Amino acid sequence: MFKVWFWSQRVLGAVYRRGAMRVATRLHRASLAKVGPGTRFQAGVRFDRPHRVEIGADCYFWSGVGAAGGCESARLRVGDRVHVNLHVLLDTEGGLTLGDDVVISEHAVISTHDHGHDPHSPPVPVSKEIGPDAWIGMRAIILSSCRSIGAGAIIGAGAVVTRDVPAWAIVAGNPARVVGHRAKVGVAA
Questions:
Q1: Global pTM?
Q2: How far apart are the C-alpha atoms of 37 and 14, rounded to whole Å?
Q3: In Å, how far from its chain's centre is CA 45?
Q4: Measured between alpha carbons, how far is 61 from 67 in angstroms, rounded to an integer?
Q5: Checking DSSP bridges between strand 96-98 and strand 113-114, what pairing results, if any?
Q6: Neighbouring C-beta atoms of residue 157, cutoff 10 Å
Q7: How would you classify the pairing of strands 113-114 and 124-125?
Q8: Which residues pair with 170 in a beta bridge?
Q9: SS3 sequence of the chain
Q10: Between 139 and 69, where is the model more confident?
Q11: For the stretch 13-48, what's the b/e string if a residue is b when 16 or more beta carbons lie within 10 angstroms of its beta carbon?
């Protein structure tokens, strides 16, 4: 009897999640400046300035993703095949660009503004670009002092990135430092 109840609850949950994803995807398609074909959003994804968000094709946004930015420079541009996982915070205050095939793991934070040492001072927006095929690990924090993450770079889980990351570099630690280099995909060694 318990097995029947258990599996019926699992099936009902899956049906609910699939329906909620369809509704959320339609809502975001109607409200965002641009959404490419095949892009899907789980329920619970939030964009503060939807008219300043452009998303490419075949992207996937998990539940709890938030993109926030209050000033006029706040803009989010996302390439194709980008995967943004659970509860990621994308600060778009200074403008944020994610290249094609970027993967951002759970609970990562990407900041594009700074207040200095006074939390009551006005934010200073800083634009940030994350190159194609970059991977950002779980709970990584990318501070505003980092203006770019190069193509193919890997940010280790829990890393605190305080400066620019070169292409194909692997960084880890607090503060993050280069610990290795990734082989270039499709390029002869």
A1: 0.89
A2: 23
A3: 11
A4: 11
A5: unpaired
A6: 14
A7: antiparallel
A8: 154, 180
A9: CHHHHHHHHHHHHHHHHHHHHHHHHHHHHHHCCEECCCCEECCCCEECCHHHEEECCCCEECCCCEEECCCCCCCEEECCCCEECCCCEEECCCCEEECCCCEECCCCEECCEECCCCCCCCCEECCEEECCCCEECCCCEECCCCCEECCCCEECCCCEECCCECCCEEEECCCCEEEEECCCCCCCC
A10: 139
A11: eeeeeeeebeebbeebbeebeebbeebbbbbebebb
How long is the chain? 189
Residue with tokens 């990351």: 165
CA R_g for the chain: 18
Query: 86: burial class by Cβ within 10 Å (0-12, 13-18, 19+)?
Result: middle
- Span 14-40, average pLDDT: 90
Instruction: Please report where in the chains the tokens 């505003």 appear, as a residue.
Output: 144
Residues 81, 124 contacting (CB under 8 angstroms): no
Q: What is the pLDDT of residues 129-176, one digit of tens each?
A: 999 999 999 999 999 999 999 999 999 999 999 999 999 999 999 999
CA distances from 164 to 144, 151, 167, 169 (A): 10, 12, 10, 11
- Tracing tokens 């369809």 back to the chain, one arrives at 22
Residue type, 41: F
* CB contact at 8 A, 176 and 156: yes
Rounded distance between C-alpha atoms, residue 176 and residue 149, angstroms: 12
Residue 87 is encoded by which pair of tokens?
């509860």
